[in-house]
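ugh ok so i messed up the first submission bc i forgot one of the chains. this is the corrected input, ALL of the components this time, i swear. 232 residues overall. if the numbers dont match what u have on ur side tell me asap before i send this to the collaborators (the ones from the other lab, u know who)
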Amino acid sequence: GESVGLHLPTLSVQEGDNSIINCAYSNSASDYFIWYKQESGKGPQFIIDIRSNMDKRQGQRVTVLLNKTVKHLSLQIAATQPGDSAVYFCAETPGGYQKVTFGTGTKLQVIP
Amino acid sequence: KAGVTQTPRYLIKTRGQQVTLSCSPISGHRSVSWYQQTPGQGLQFLFEYFSETQRNKGNFPGRFSGRQFSNSRSEMNVSTLELGDSALYLCASSRLGTSGISGGNTDTQYFGPGTRLTVL
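and heres the new structure output, hopefully the right one now
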């Protein structure tokens, strides 16, 4: 199978602080990007998405930023809560029914 | 609306056996994708089915196969199990397909809870 990374970086954040999770994507043809949250023992859960014709999109307490020049995606979580503790994956696809490629994932630990 | 369901949730098999996993997509969703998740390799795409046809395939050996039924339910089969097949197998459904983008609309995948397969 395709490799999507061997190590899981961890981000520790104090409760109430803002979190920024970064993701570098590889395919310059990618047109659609998604952030997923995966809690222990559960499947990934959709958080927010963004298309390549945008550079910023906001949801409830979350913001996704896209920098196509350097192929970088970030997820900002405002006022991080203990319930935000999970592994966060970015995903990319060229669209047109092409398959989705997932990043390595970042583990977010919220310190109460 | 009920979410994606997968059965069984946990499964223990021995090397050489075969296994069949089942996925029921969200009502109205016609696309089902399967992923393998392991600590070392992360989330890897296995294949996608849309309207009973395999539309996309990842880089997995032929021991991994799948099918989709007319009601969009999907099954995944792994034959001649190996120790390295131990993983969480996730199914995701979407309305049109793996991020099918048509008319400017995005199409999100919704994941089930997964089947934890352990091969002894």
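quick check: The interface with chain A takes residues 4, 33, 35-36, 39-46, 48, 50, 55-56, 58-60, 90, 92, 96-101, 106, 108-114 of chain B (CB under 8 Å). that seems consistent at least. The radius of gyration of chain B is 14 Å.
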